[in-house]
Fold this protein.
Amino acid sequence: SNQWTPQQCVPEFTFQGIRAFSLSIPRKQQVEVFVDGNPVKIEQGSAVIQACEKAGYTIPRFCYHERLSVAGNCRMCLVELERSPKPIASCAMPVMPGMKIKTDTPLVKRAREGVMEFLLANHPLDCPICDQGGECDLQDQSIRYGSDRSRFHEVIGKRAVEDKDFGPLIKTSMNRCIHCTRCVRFANEVAGVPELGTTGRGSEMQISTYIESTLDSEMSANVIDLCPVGALTAKPYAFSYRSWELKGTETIDVLDAIGSNIRVDTRGVEVMRVLPRINDEINEEWISDKTRFAFDGLKRQRLTTPLIRQGDKFIPISWNEALSCVAKEIHKVKGTEAKAIAGQLVDVESLVALKDLFNSFGSDNFAIDSPNGSKMPTHGVDFRSNYLLNSKIAGVEKADVLLLVGTNPRHEGPILNTRILKSYLNNGLDVGLIGHTADTTYEYDHIGATSHPAAYDIGFIPSHASSQTTPKFIYLLGADEIRPHDIPKDAFVVYQGHHGDVGAHYADIVLPG
């Protein structure tokens, strides 16, 4: 029967102990295909390569990326389809009911070897000096799917291409480019800056900016991660490490309010690079250029041990001595005479810990390291849980209308901006802006103009009574814009941060942050 039933809206999966739910949008119909004889059910409209992956088969690819549109120009993902006269590109072929796919036949192996042979025909032997070495898709797939020899022995040598200038962050070696066009599609579809494209045809084809300009995007360096070869690498730390020398540590970015998931790769105690981690709810697999490269200004002259002031100098002491000294000074003052000041780039977790510490001995005297940061806000401050309404960053893609108030997400939250652009391109999202006009990557309706959300979220604000009290104990957490007249001369000052910046000069105790 073609009659619609409510059961069609209920997902197949349920979790033990959790009530099943229904969706307001009917699911796409499931179709059954066979991959190497194994039945697989997948949504209609999915690509053959997705069905193969769902069945547990790895299909090689260079141009295909699940977050970008389909290009189908590398031909590495060829598979055999029953009753098809030739292999098909699995990334560009949608699944059909009853389709029988073969991924490991002699025909498929020969086709992949042939594609790899063509790709390597003009690829330079730069592996010993290439920064992509060790994590290069072309290396890995040539070993697994390529032939053990080449039939190309051109007397005139390999094709050579002039390197392009994409700016101070992206180093280009265009001789290595295999024309997968991932960078072109990313610039158009995710970053929203249609500046990259192809020129020429056949052997004269090149990837470049159309008018010899640099990439003008706060997300541009993501093309480094997308590039399957060494054509696009990081210019600031070129030739400084090998991938197998690095140890990764998972953490969260604090340079904006998005909280992008990142991985910090270190060699010994030195930070070498910052890469994105996949989190579909927040940053997908992108990070901003600021997140990726800002560490080079923070990696040197870091505070590594507590210090105490003796005269005009700071003397190293142990953590036990430093904490004992801080505790002794705290007990000398009343709770209302202790004040905590937080800097602009302090993460919310540290703010909560500092707030709980000062609340424990009766102080609610908090300030933000900014002009008028010690005064009570004129607007009402509500707790985050009272207004959140369970909204998520990923929820932007489900919205029909989006209102931006006093913000430019392209620069303040580039990751959020990519979500807005995706919904604008795919769903026709209507965007309104209250505030200063902004150079966004999508169209919006400017409605009008208007006037430390994280601190307000957790209630890190001074009460009226404590803001009138002269503090005798001050805790500076990453606060480096503090003014001398904001610190009473008889106050004991503790500074915690990652560098000995301006705030440390007023401190009696300095703690590494």
